[in-house]
Description:
The protein is α+β, with helices and mostly antiparallel strands. Helices cover 47% and strands 21% of the residues.
Amino acid sequence: MIKSTKKQSQEKTLMRIRTLLNKFEYLKSFVYKKEYIEVHGDQERLIIEIVPRKNSQAICSICGEKHSTYDHKSTPRDFEFVPLWGMPTYFRYQMRRVSCPVHGVRIEQVPWARGKSPITKTYGQFLAHWAKKLSWQEVAQSFKTSWHNVYMAVKEMVEYGLAHRDLSQIEAIGVDEVHYGKKLKYLTMVYQLDQNEKRLLFVERNRRVKSLLKCFRELGKENCLNIKYVCSDMWKPYLKVIKKKLPNALNILDRFHIVKKLNEAVNTVRIEENQRLKKEGYEPILDKSKYCFLKKEENLTKNQETKLKDILQYDLKSVRAYLLKISFEAFWQYDSPYWAEWFLKKWCTRAMRSKLEPMKKFVKMIRRHQPLLMNWFKAKKAYSSGAVEGLNRKVNLVTRRSYGFKNYDILKIALFHTMGKLPEPERTHSFF
Ligand SMILES: [Zn+2]
């Protein structure tokens, strides 16, 4: 008795599926023929069979033109659709082969899926949407699909987005490098840094002149000429490429990169001093103090704050380096480039007298790039200077969350998906 009611209600549901599909996933030249449940191991799957409409012609997958049918593939193909009632759902269709006068015998192009993709376009968009909020593994688990399908969904979405994005109207960009993976491989990143639009524009393997040249080539000559501001670090080969390829741009050394270098100098002083203290048999008070020196004061934990306060009482080289670093912060507060330069000069003299080699090295670098550094004041309000740091943090989040990203190509797709603000194809029905 109970069994038959269940069966009846299932049949009722199945009848309604076709109505819903015709409403939300209408296919012009195809018909939803029948639906049934199939058991695969311990999993029940909903199968929706599709057939071509009478007298409809198949489309050549190369040229997109309609031609007569050559034959049918012997086994039907399944395309995964959005799960209904938590049940994995598939469109099942027997692919036709068309005889195209230009391309010969080809498999047909169906409107619900791209190329050889095993998932429907609708499901691809659905998965890609969730892959922005969850890790790919979590998406796969949540919707009972494979990691590979989530990857394919995101990949298709990114490929569509890259082909359809608008690269004109970009005035400010940032060039940066990021390392990832255990072997510390580099990525060259180019961001858009306009006040009203911040996004990832390019990712390239390695940090080489070739990598950056490739980004500018993709941006196109005309768009390169539109760039008014480019912010970068001090790596000479990149500075050269920027000068050559972006002739109308003011090159700015961003605050974020300078502070990073300064922090590195302070850290080197600390490491060297710590080793010396240990060797000479002193109490290793600089052990585990790295972040006390590097973090912004307001971000220190209670423990770090106490430790730093303690260390600052000693007459140490690290303390002198730290105090120099703190006093450098005033530099960024100036509105007038003239007074900022005045301050910089005084600060550099003081740092040179400190007799701390890493700090002296920092000063020499600053002096070498002083005009570019001063450009920061000229462009202060024209581009989003805080954005580089924020975008950088986002990249680290993606690379760290990416346990499944075995290689560069996958990582690149993940980065574009989360940071590229890429356009998406229009949907007939919105699931979210
Ligand atoms: Zn063709």
